[in-house]
Amino acid sequence: MTRWLGVDSSTDALSLVLGQGELTNNFSDSKVIASQFNKENKQHGQSLVASVQALLAEVSWTVADIEAVVVGIGPGSYTGLRIGVTFAKVWATSLAVPLYEVSSLALQISSAPIAPVIISLMDARRLSAYIGLYSHNPINNRLENLQADCHGDFKEWLQSETVSQILNDTSQVLIVGHDTESFIQVFQEIYSKIELDTVTTEEALPHVERVFNLSMVGQLNRCTDPHTLAPNYAHATLAEQNWAQDHQRRVASRAENEAFIDHYKTTN
């Protein structure tokens, strides 16, 4: 069975897992061998390599034993994502092993209670957030995306046409996000008639060992070219914003960037 390493560094917490089993089916034979979740040391750049080495030593595995890598690509912390995704890309390309990507917001809710509509939140300051909108299919017990993960003003997002239509058609919503009480208050002010459940403890952070929960089937994607994998920042970086302003240009979306890369690869 495949031995794999999972990494998520999208928040202040660093989540690592060593797993065993196939990543291309219903995860029926997958299991956690060892995991680590560290919220104390927020300097992922300093702790990531040493933490992985310690986890490997814990189960007497070596670098050569890892046959695949899974990485949470965000959205979330710019610096954290850059560190985690770069680490995963270097590992996968240098050892020529498959690289899989997964939404950090999906990881965050993969063990949450079942609800018809689930909002996965990460605080991005000043009541802006990284937001994922999902549903939990009761038939196959899988998470389904209702909207692409995004970044924005939470109040404006709640009142947008697409989101308000979805929320007005349901009677129950679950919000999952660590320390998101202020966002919950905003939701209740706008949608006071909707039954709201919440998870705001550390369980509401991305734990990469949850990647093979049954609910995550369909959320894990293999990268065809690990070199081109980029974090999903969900919004332009400050450098990109400044460049666009200086050149009076619009910042391309992630989908547009991926389409350009696909076009470049087919024409060269």
Distinctive features:
single chain; 6-stranded mixed sheet; 8 helices; 11 strands; globular
Describe the protein.
This protein is α/β, with parallel strands linked by helices. The protein folds into three domains: 3-104 and 207-242, 2-Layer Sandwich (Nucleotidyltransferase, domain 5); 106-204, ATPase, nucleotide binding domain (Nucleotidyltransferase, domain 5), CATH 3.30.420.40; 243-268. The protein is built from eight helices and eleven strands. It has helices at residues 44-58, 78-95, 104-109, 154-158, 161-168, 181-190, 238-247, 254-267, and strands at residues 3-8, 14-20, 31-38, 68-72, 99-102, 117-123, 128-137, 142-153, 172-176, 195-199, 221-222. It has a six-stranded mixed sheet with strand order 3-2-1-4-5-11. Strands 8-7-6-9-10 form a five-stranded mixed sheet. β6 and β7 form a beta hairpin. It starts with a strand and ends with a helix. The model has no long low-confidence stretch (mean pLDDT 88).
CA-atom Rg in angstroms: 19 Å
Number of strands: 11
Q: Look at the helices and sheets and give the structural class.
A: alpha/beta
The CATH superfamily name of the largest domain is ATPase, nucleotide binding domain
Chain-averaged pLDDT: 88
The coarse silhouette is globular
What portion of residues is helical? 25-40%
Proportion of residues in extended strands: 25-35%
* Sheet of most strands: 6 strands, mixed
Which strands sit side by side, in order, in the main sheet?
Answer: 3-2-1-4-5-11
Low-confidence stretches are none
- Per CATH, the architecture of the largest domain is 2-Layer Sandwich
C-alpha termini separation = 36 Å
CATH topology of the largest domain: Nucleotidyltransferase, domain 5
Alpha plus pi helix count: 8
CATH class of the largest domain: Alpha Beta
Count of separate structural domains: 3
Order of helices and strands: EEEHEHEHEEEHHEHEEHH
